[in-house]
Amino acid sequence: MKVGKVFLVGAGPGDPKLITVKGIEAIQKADVIVYDRLAHPSLLKYGRRDAEKIYVGKSPNRHTLQQEEINQLLVQLALEGKLVTRLKGGDPTIFGRVGEEALLLAEHGISFEIVPGITSAIAVPAYAGIPVTHRDFTSSIAIVTGHEDPTKNESNINWEKLATATGTLIFLMGVSNLKLIRDKLIENGRDSSTPVALVRMGTRVEQKTVTGTLENIVQVVEETKLTSPAIIIIGEVVKLREQLAWFEKKPLFGKRVLVTRARNQASELSALIEELGGETVEFPVIKIVPPKHTKEYQQAFQQLDQYDWIMFTSVNGVQSFFQTLKEQRIDIRKMAKARIAAIGPKTAALLEEKGLIVDVLPQEFRAEGLLDALTGELKVGQKVLLPRADIARKILPDQLKEKGLEVVEINAYETVIDAENKDEIIKMLKEKQIQIITFTSSSTVKNFYEALQGESLEKLLKGVTLASIGPITTDTAQQLGLNIDITASEYTIPGLVKAISKSK
């Protein structure tokens, strides 16, 4: 059997966007992903759907696998011919024990690569507004483990030299030994008034920073009940935090937001939330699937030259419409007679990308707004094509028919429930790890409600802010007993994010 290969990858300090391009590539091609607790779980989405995922996370008081077992696991998987990506928090060469893993792989003749990551020793202070060097304060740093092997008879740290050797000292994994670190540094000449900061869960939504001096930092940590994982920064550069703290000032800092859009549409909403400092968890309760090509569906496209109007009510409808044109080899020029209406700016923008100029675009982005915008434009007897979702509201076709128009509705796409990570989301809600839930359509509300049947929604959603893209979605939620806290006044994704940001 052909021997596999192992990529030893640094995942960065926590913010999933801080992983390297090469790190993502290693995840994408892996047969098996072996990951620990400090690697952000969202990074697993880059893996193949058929990739095996093995959690080997460790915490100060609990080890899923001992390091020696992890080393052997990597060897075993590679000898089975698999391409393995070992995903470790931060940079694997800085107290990540990558040397032990790599040595055992080398002893067995297994090919491996070490993919560096952004170390938490530098990134976490930066997210707390503390550059680890500054020409006015210091040009030297030392990175030290705060959690040496407890089985060793004596320390490898030369405290006498370390205490005053560099302007900035960074201790990783040192919260439980903070008093010892403080005492050793002061005993060996570090001024007790030296500024100190501890940053817990740096670069993540849970980031928490406390500051003090060597003299009082132990008391500060006890009073604030700050726990691991945290980084200790000691030095004059800590003073810069007061002016340079940027991450914690973002409008959505500290908020983890559940995004319920379809998987292929979630990126826009997620990107806007993350830009404002929030962290997103995707729960794509909707899956967009192609329509059933019935005889009526095919006939509607064959008669494109007969329509006076083609009205698009969503981006999905536009995408499906043009996919059908391509599949059936229908020339877009066949619809030259038709005027084009779109329900919102995103839909209109996509139509214009396809080369169609939109004739009517409402100011209120829903069916009622489109009907208002069409006042004076419609004539009795005109023929209208409506390519829409299978579950779309009936107000638009019904009102058009009342005005004497002939309306042909086709299911341009179908929506089905998709809640494959339901258990993970329920667990996060129970542990109060989600602060905001977004709904971008009535179908996201209905599918969310259906996916969580069997759970006590009142208990799960207690303290969680529910945000809706507009009044129709809000009405649907309220009919199901869900209390919407925020309803966007502009019924778009940017409008929804703006409303959430303002309400904070």
TrEMBL record:
EC numbers on record: 2.1.1.107
UniProt domain Tetrapyrrole biosynthesis uroporphyrinogen III synthase: residue ranges: 267-497
A Pfam family this chain is assigned to: HEM4
UniProt-recorded Gene Ontology molecular function terms: uroporphyrin-III C-methyltransferase activity; uroporphyrinogen-III synthase activity
Source organism superkingdom: Bacteria
InterPro entries named among the record's database cross-references: 4pyrrol_Mease (IPR000878), 4pyrrol_Methylase_sf (IPR035996), 4pyrrol_syn_uPrphyn_synt_sf (IPR036108), 4pyrrol_synth_uPrphyn_synth (IPR003754), 4pyrrole_Mease_sub1 (IPR014777), 4pyrrole_Mease_sub2 (IPR014776), CobA/CysG_C (IPR006366), Siro_Cobalamin_biosynth (IPR050161)
Keywords from the named record: Methyltransferase, Porphyrin biosynthesis, S-adenosyl-L-methionine, Transferase
GO BP term, example: siroheme biosynthetic process
Signal peptide range in chain numbering: none
Domain called Tetrapyrrole methylase: residue spans: 5-217
Family the UniProt entry places it in: Belongs to the precorrin methyltransferase family.
PANTHER family: S-ADENOSYL-L-METHIONINE-DEPENDENT UROPORPHYRINOGEN III METHYLTRANSFERASE, CHLOROPLASTIC, SIROHEME SYNTHASE-RELATED
NCBIfam families tied to this protein: cobA_cysG_Cterm, PRK06136.1
This protein's name: Uroporphyrinogen-III C-methyltransferase
The species this protein was found in: Tepidibacillus decaturensis
Taxonomic lineage from the root: Bacteria, Bacillati, Bacillota, Bacilli, Bacillales
